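Good morning C.,

I know you're traveling, so I'll keep this short. The sequence:
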Amino acid sequence: MSLLTISPEHQPDQGLRYAEFADISAQLQAIGVVFERWEASYQFAADADQATVLAAYAEPIARLQNQYGFRSVDVISLTAAHPDKVALRQKFLAEHTHDDFEVRFFVEGCGLFYLHVGDKVYSVLCCQGDLISVPAHTRHWFDLGAEPQLKAIRLFTTPDGWVATFTGSDIGAGYPTLDQTLAGLS
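The tokens, ready to paste straight into the viewer:
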């Protein structure tokens, strides 16, 4: 279940929630963020390799490459057994920006993007089938959870891939984590 919460910058408990795809998409579009749903062109096994995953989504990937000039595409897979899960989580939880336009499509699992735009924070719970973009230079952070279980397609306009400029802000410490958000839904 995808979910968007829009909160005043320093009041994460005062947010407005949106759970319908059309509402989420419209709210994010207003700040220049693309939010789409994709379906694979065929079924593949959970342990499918990168080439198989990319082939299953070849048509929407090609559309985005043509539209935005993406030059590199890869698949990242993180599980609870990943040896660097704690370090990766901490790195992504630190507010940062990119010179590049960031795009993630969730093939499996879920994650929580936080977009810090103006005096608001847009917390976006993305689940399997969701695609989200983060415009260049947008302050944001991401929580993959304490026990990550996700597979995502990443698209980049530069061949360097993921390169972050950290802001030094600790704003993320005041926001609910992915685990807390999921627990609140049950």
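Safe travels,
E.
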